[in-house]
Design goal:
about 100 residues, alpha+beta, 3 helices, 6 strands
Length: about 100
């Protein structure tokens, strides 16, 4: 008999079906980082979570910050919150770390 998950080419003996389905690469799974990603196939999950997911955790690239946040919030963090970003001092015009302002 065929695996019940769409796209799986496996042809199995009935007694092997349940064992196969516990590791089937076509089993639908959810992203661990966000429910907003929708259903994925088990075979897509690793690449999605490590390379593609806009909600995967990343460390701020600014030396000394070290803050971990979802990738989709990184630009906002750099523009508004990161203490290590150089900002222009409103008094003298010099570049100053946001934390020192």
């Amino acid at each position: 008999c065929a695996c019940r998950f769409e796209g799986c080419p496996a042809q199995l003996r009935r007694r092997d079906r349940s064992h196969h389905e516990t590791s089937c690469e076509y089993f639908p799974v959810s992203c661990h980082h966000s429910h907003k990603c929708g259903q994925l196939l088990r075979r897509q999950l690793l690449v999605h979570e490590t390379e593609e997911c806009p909600f995967r955790p990343v460390v701020c690239p600014m030396v000394g910050c070290g803050f971990t946040l979802p990738l989709d919030r990184l630009d906002e963090h750099l523009e508004q919150d990161c203490p290590r970003v150089l900002c222009k001092c409103s008094m003298c015009g010099e570049g100053v770390c946001r934390a020192a302002m």
